[in-house]
Amino acid sequence: MSISSIIMKIANVSFAIFSLIGFSACTGNKSNDTGYLKISGERFHTYYHITYQGTEDFSNGIDSVFEVFNHSANPFDTTSLIAAINNNQGNRMDDILKTIITRSFDISKASGGAYDITCSPLINAWGFGYEHFNEVDARIIDSLKKFVGYEKITLANDTLIKQDERMKLDLSSISKGYCSDLIASFLKSRGVENFLVEIGGEIAYKGVNPNGEAWRVGINKPLFDTTGLIQDLEEIVVLKGNGGLATSGNYRNFKLIDGKRVGHTIDPESGYPIQTDVLSATVIAADCMTADGLATALMVVGSQKAEELMSKFSNTEYLLILGTKDENGFKTMASPGFRQKIISK
């Protein structure tokens, strides 16, 4: 089912949702001199910021999108469909869940399994998921790997079938991107032509900013920082038209284990956290969901296989910030199309 069809369903249940929850989680304010509205808030353990041109406050509609998405794909919500699948309490997928999982498997196949949403047991074991282990050793990792692998999942219409009931899915590497897409589609359905939707750094955009120019976003230097307060920019990118942008990196989601810094990117083959020569991967695509998943995949495959992977997806561009430096700072690797979007800081 298309995003527009999903949005129509959300619109139909919007009133019912707000009759039940009785409040909006969004906060908004109007920029009177530009004609743009700004809405921000917190969802899925992260922050979101939405800017769009118009006079109508869409806070309630946006909250409806969040609520419907939460019911489908939030593993931290024990009543969600993904939680039911992970806990073997159901195997039904709605249109949102089916879209996310199908696209995830596309990226898994293209990356030779380097990207795999069935890594949830490993992600949890290393303390980066919604469950936590007290300790990790080689024996535990080898045991968990036996029920990891996207090829062990079968999608049959609206049903997900697991070969092993211990399998669990982690959608965090792609779900925020799709939620950004859904909100973008909601705004389009309301006639909004110019907007930027950002959820936890994953961006869906269209048109121009309040200055009448193409949207501009900064790509941070990959400086290890768990606070998110360091905002040194590596590049500024111009986003023309309509699409999505996502960045992945270990520099803000890591742990110290035995005095060693360990990032959240897990290699499905080894079962261990991986740090390739890529410190940060940014992808621009036709939609944010694809950009989100591919950015994570690039962190696993590294720079040597980046071009091969990205060539399998049309209308995509990428920027890799590498772990080596020269006199000008971090070395980078980018597709020609991405280079054309970079402007001087």
Automatic annotation (TrEMBL):
Under which EC number(s) is this enzyme classified?
2.7.1.180
Reactions performed catalytically: L-threonyl-[protein] + FAD = FMN-L-threonyl-[protein] + AMP + H(+)
Q: Which SUPFAM superfamilies match?
A: ApbE-like (SSF143631)
Q: What species is this protein from?
A: Porphyromonas macacae
What does the entry comment about cofactor binding?
Magnesium. Can also use manganese.
The reply to whether Transmembrane helix figures as a keyword in the UniProt entry is: no
Q: Which family does it belong to?
A: Belongs to the ApbE family.
Q: Spell out the PANTHER family in the cross-references.
A: FAD:PROTEIN FMN TRANSFERASE (PTHR30040:SF2), THIAMINE BIOSYNTHESIS LIPOPROTEIN APBE (PTHR30040)
UniProt KW Lipoprotein keyword: yes
Please give the cofactor(s) recorded in the UniProt entry for this protein: Mg(2+); Mn(2+)
Instruction: Mention any Pfam family matching this sequence.
Output: ApbE
Question: In the record, which residues are listed under signal peptide?
Answer: 1-16
MF (Gene Ontology): metal ion binding; transferase activity
UniProt keywords (A-Z) are: FAD, Flavoprotein, Lipoprotein, Magnesium, Metal-binding, Signal, Transferase
Q: What is this protein called?
A: FAD:protein FMN transferase
Specify the domain of life of the species encoding this protein. Bacteria
Binding residues for Mg(2+): S173, D292, T296
